[in-house]
Amino acid sequence: MSNTNPARGMRDFLPADVRKRNYVIGIIREVYEKYGFEPLETPTVENLSTLTNKYGEEGDQLMFKILKRGEKLANKLEKGGIKNENELTDLALRYDLTVPLARVVANYKNDLPKFFKRYQIQPVWRADRPARGRYREFYQCDVDAIGSKSMIVEAELISAVCEILQKLGFLDFTIRINSRNILDGMMEVADIPKANRANALVIIDKLDKIGLNGIKKELLANDFAVESVRIITHQIENQVSLLNEATNNYEYNLQILSETSTPADEFASNNKNLNSYWKAKKELGEIVEYTKNSTARKFIKIDESLARGLSYYTGAIFEVNVPDFQGSIAGGGRYDGLIGMFGKEEIPAVGFSLGLERILLIMEERGMFPNDLTTNAADVLITIWNEETAGESLKLAGELRQKGLRVMVYPQPDKLGKQFKYADQIDVEYACVLGETELAENTVQIKNMKTGDQKNVAREKVSEELAKL
Amino acid sequence: MSNTNPARGMRDFLPADVRKRNYVIGIIREVYEKYGFEPLETPTVENLSTLTNKYGEEGDQLMFKILKRGEKLANKLEKGGIKNENELTDLALRYDLTVPLARVVANYKNDLPKFFKRYQIQPVWRADRPARGRYREFYQCDVDAIGSKSMIVEAELISAVCEILQKLGFLDFTIRINSRNILDGMMEVADIPKANRANALVIIDKLDKIGLNGIKKELLANDFAVESVRIITHQIENQVSLLNEATNNYEYNLQILSETSTPADEFASNNKNLNSYWKAKKELGEIVEYTKNSTARKFIKIDESLARGLSYYTGAIFEVNVPDFQGSIAGGGRYDGLIGMFGKEEIPAVGFSLGLERILLIMEERGMFPNDLTTNAADVLITIWNEETAGESLKLAGELRQKGLRVMVYPQPDKLGKQFKYADQIDVEYACVLGETELAENTVQIKNMKTGDQKNVAREKVSEELAKL
Fold this sequence. Notes:
The structure is a homodimer. Helix content of chain A is about 45%, strand content about 15%. Chain A is α+β, with helices and mostly antiparallel strands. In chain A, helix 6 (about 150-165) packs across helix 13 and helix 9 packs antiparallel against helix 10 (about 225-245). The longest helix of chain A has 20 residues, at about 15-35. The interface between A and B is large, with 113 and 114 residues.
């Protein structure tokens, strides 16, 4: 017997899985559409040259690359002496949704509106070592607004994500926000040289995992100056305790934004090089102001220790967490340098990415899917008495479908017991029996598969009766 | 500047494309769900061993194969002397939806219901030479019912496809049906040896393209006996003329099914080896009978010359055509030998595949998309006066979204003229202006972007007013 498993790290989605996924994706789409975001889909396969050198060395290694075909490949193999795998490949599988977006923006710049707001929900592929919750094929769910530097964009993105999460039933999430320029100011104050700041950010980003002491140790182990580390960790400690004390998020945010609330503020007020620090403070203030009338108001929390791992952010950054899950369920930020990568101009952009696979995992664990979510194949099963009467069963099926019911016709004239057993297996609530007696009397027997109750109903009243039930 | 086109033969779907595709896919899903079919999704990437030798030599050549990764590949390259491309690859992209279905049926046989009815709408990849309407990434849209040999299954599949096509607005299509066993009987009668019949079918399948004379020539050129060719082409000619004369499809079907309507029938009645021929006639009769109460009745036409190219069909075959398109827009049939390929037992199955890309092409050419299909990004644009008043614009946006409107907020405080220009570019019907005057008076100016009409409305009446418009 052959191996019939899906490929390593990939998943089959059986009907119940697809239905749950489509439920979540449906809500995401609906909310994004209400905010004026439009759907985009790009091909699974991209030219290798589009993707290489975009994701760092690790990305190039984890990319699934496609073998050249036909003569091109035959010639290579015949000649022999292939040293580099790139001689064998010309295409690769989509690795994220941001590089394809940048390519689309460059390729259709005359067809796209001045401010292009798109959402994209498609799988990506990474040849990572599979682990719990980590797959080699997984969906990304990105929303990006391109073309403006105004904080109105950040505010809209945050509001949309809040609305999605609430519609999905999350009530206990926090959207932490910060700015790369706040962090940069903090590092300026701590006298960390510009060249080392990206490294420091990667370490600070581990706060959730390794705690304040862990960060301290790792910074020192990476040769950051003792005084710099003291200032940074003092800042973070102060921020964390303010964050934990906060009872009303909106009030807390206003407090953090006041000019002398943090140790960094005190340092910064004496430093003339910190314009971008103060600008970032003002920008966070705008985000708080613009969202104060939306439901986002109570979910937003400024956290000046929030770092985010990725290097490309240039302004505001966001991360969404729930208490019972380590790691974020969504994140994003402003990245003004990336979307223009295929053109000559810098194009401002802000994006949010929802962790669809994680959201599904948490919803499953918490039992958050609605009770009325369709999980079975049909509302009603119609039985088949024999080949001669099958036409009558199909006729009834047609009528009930006209009324909007999902109707399964048992596919062959087996014994009635077998047909009921199948009805139980596929978990339909009602079976309609059209036997010889019923056909002679022009009735249908409706059987409640849960209770076993049966009743005979006049043929023309069946859909009415089922609607009632 | 880098190449920003999608890879050869692949397509980007911009928002208007995605919306049209989702509209069609939505109708397909809805109808299949009403017939008790359930959604299935399988991974893009399959183990190479799952796919090889399943699609013939051509299939193995057209498959996109994925390069091995990491040490596995490095070792191969270092050792050198690679003769066969299969040493370099372990995975490949999905080539159709049938082999993955067979794998799923074998892999989850204890979890799936006795009769598994699934639909699957996912892309597949083939390294074919791209041409008009032929892409290297394209969607297949398959529905299959597994586990029964009864013609009830064929009837249900045909009814579902008819309902889908009608819901999409097709009124002029024909579903031709035949059986491989009718063709086989015809070839028995014409004394064509069993071993040559598959070849003959491939030639007969070209009727639409090369006509009766073309078929005659090609059969003779392929060394079929003159008398065999005479009988076959006589049959086909007879069938085609009956088909063309038919005015009422249902009456015509009954006529074709009567025992001596075709030359083959006459031969067959004298031949004892033609049980399966007569069984096939009876089966087509059942399909016609079972669908006589559905709207499928008027679209079905028996065509005993219908061959279908694929070799795996074992019983009924179907093909859907529209007058203004050469080639079929859907097709399928019974293939009892294929789904069991990964197990030990034969598993009966009937399937239908809708040509999604072709259907979209024809609908586009004919202008069949509904007028009210969403094509723009939003219903309303809300302008921004300045940074101080932006919060008010966002507040209004939130209220209108609550009412179900799709609302775009202009993302920055540009001059009003620029904001209107953008409203025109994204084709919204209304713009809401909240300027200083409006804010002072607690009103909103609603501008009809098509007519240029403007009116001032009390702030609290805006959603009501827009709903009216």
